[in-house]
Specification:
It is a single chain. This protein is an alpha/beta fold and about 160 residues long. It has a single domain, classed as Rossmann fold, CATH 3.40.50. The chain is built from five helices and six strands. It has helices spanning about 35-50, 70-80, 100-115, 130-135, 145-165, and strands spanning about 25-30, 55-60, 85-90, 120-130, 140, 145. The chain has a four-stranded parallel β-sheet, sandwiched between helices. Strands 5-6 form a two-stranded antiparallel ribbon. Helix 2 packs parallel to helix 3 (about 100-115). Bound molecules: riboflavin. Riboflavin binds next to strand 3 and helix 3.
């Protein structure tokens, strides 16, 4: 069944809580850097646009998407003040089964870390068939998954602050 496609950068600012006072980490994979740097810019600019202070945003890099869970764990364990970590990567389907191994490891690793730690760890990883699809989703015709990841982080932190105080 055909689903209505949405643009990853589209969000209603009225539904996004203020990010004032939030401290957010961003972990960026270095593989496919033209894509992941664009995701990082999208996430960073969206955090700032929603009132997260620049001094409260930390960006770190890891070699590949497989290392994103370890990078996120390192940030979270370094400072209890982090409210959330956004993980950004791009895994492109190749001839090998590495795609499945990497995608499964990253998605399982990030959700397990988030549930174990309690703080939101956001899955901002593009998993595409080819480079064109990745370009389309990192600032191209389908928007920027980094923007979506940043909005998700702010919403999750606000949800936790509302419930936990
Ligand atoms: N990392 C990515 O972030 N995206 C990729 O598309 C990607 N493809 C890979 C393909 C192969 C065959 C290998 C060996 C690694 C790939 N990696 C990729 C790197 C991976 O995430 C990790 O950094 C390395 O496997 C070292 O642990």
């Amino acid at each position: 069944m055909e689903r209505k496609k949405t643009n990853l950068s589209d969000y209603n600012p009225d539904t996004v809580p203020s990010g004032k006072g939030m401290k957010i980490g961003i972990v960026v994979a270095e593989w496919n850097p033209q894509i992941t740097n664009a995701l990082c810019k999208g996430a960073y600019d969206t955090l700032v646009a929603n009132k997260v202070a620049k001094k409260d945003i930390t960006v770190v890099h890891v070699p590949g998407s497989f290392e994103l869970p370890t990078g996120a764990d390192t940030l979270l364990s370094s400072d209890t003040d982090y409210d959330a970590v956004i993980c950004l990567g791009c895994v492109i389907q190749g001839e090998t089964r590495h795609f499945d191994f990497i995608c499964n490891a990253v998605s399982n690793g990030l959700i397990n870390l988030s549930l174990q730690d309690g703080r939101p760890v956001i899955f901002g990883v593009l998993t595409t068939n080819n480079m064109e699809q990745a370009i389309d989703r990192s600032g191209g015709k389908h928007g920027n998954k980094g923007v979506e990841a940043a909005v998700t982080a702010i919403k999750m932190v606000a949800m936790q602050k509302k419930i936990w105080g």
